């Protein structure tokens, strides 16, 4: 631990901690590399899975980089920046999260080599930014245009995103579901550009059955059944009322007692309860709705009157489902039953209850806004279905990105090798120490093919040499087939990814690395418990912490 002194005076409060200069940079770089190494073995189709157990004992089994880093309880501030890289990649593209984290760690490792040689972090930062800009230019030369009508290409892109996530045997089925779902929610802007809002695609999971039983429903599926079996199972030309307030007695905010001294008073109390419930039910009935979705509870007495009116009612509906229903049916979310008007109801052609694998669910189809679909996912166990959801979510985002941008590149680490070679050539034309940083950036890009080879049990040196040879001969689509161990044309092997995956990963990794490199001082206020995360122990010799 260092103390901050100014003219012999300690200017920080007692217990505050400061780590300065090379020690601060060493700790931050070490933390960033540790995060990258934690997900490195999950990269690629042959990557391994991680089992994560939270404080509640819930188990998550996945090889999705963003999910792993989100579930890990990371404390170090610099390490959290690498987690943010993965999170941003997931938000922007939906895939390539592990690649982004691994690339960030490798950029930090290469920067550390330069720092050890005496190159200033500011020069490294400028060189990295220069290299990232050049990467974007080079990527434009190897992109392939894809149209939204090219079903075959879109299915290949979806299959690439699904590969390696435990669903390879069913990727054709899932790819078709993905493309059909995304096409249902494509919107055209005024300027003619296409926008895909994947939040309009709901994924409903159901353990039981085969993955092949998964289906696409053009409408919304709510994982709730009718609140009473006497209610109609099927309602055509539905007028839908969406209620966020409870249709039941409100409990008092504090404990209260009512003293009853005679049977008449008891009867009056019960009569008043019934009257209140009847009035609530009548307000719902008076709206003209024949279907009611309620976020909160539905009292038995109110339920009785609603059922007598022939209304289909569902209670305890998720708020997110109510918002979706409001969007697709045109209905207004009602917060007070006294404010209901006829204009507040939404419409749908059909609302019905169906039984799926022993569980009853409500289907809302033929909605006013047709751009809403539900993917019903089936799988053997809850863990299988949860991992399928991760795979499908990534595929939906990736296909949506391709429809928006219309540009793709091949996979199998082909773009990284091409970028590395071209960057190395470009670095030789630069003057000054920035050349060293650009060269190291080019070397860092090779961590992707190297990791793919390692995870597939192949020799990374042999693979890198073969990849470089193929690209130098002009085969820009040459990449690694991890199943055969051969370097092949990735376009012919149907391994395709959106251009945005590469540009976003390079941009995010570069910015995070530059931010970490520019930090030369860590100052932590008096901690309530324990030292600053990642800081050396107070009792250690300071010289011992400098050897990173």
Short structural description:
With 548 residues, this protein is an alpha+beta fold.
Number of strands: 23
The main β sheet shows up as: 7 strands, mixed
Distance between the termini: 16 Å
User: For the CA atoms, what is the radius of gyration?
Assistant: 29 Å
The quaternary organization reads as single chain
Mean pLDDT: 84
Can you walk me through this structure?
With about 550 residues, the chain is α+β, with helices and mostly antiparallel strands. About 45% of the residues lie in helices and about 20% in strands. The protein is built from 16 helices and 23 strands. Strands 11, 12, 13, 14, 15, 16 and 17 form a seven-stranded mixed β-sheet that branches. Strands 6-19-22 form a three-stranded antiparallel β-sheet. It has a three-stranded mixed β-sheet with strand order 9-18-10, with helices on one face. A hairpin with a 2-residue loop joins strand 1 and strand 2. Helix 2 crosses helix 3 and helix 3 packs antiparallel against helix 16 (about 500-515).
Which features would summarize this protein structure in a list?
548 residues, alpha+beta, 3-stranded antiparallel beta sheet, 16 helices, 23 strands, 45% helix, disordered C terminus
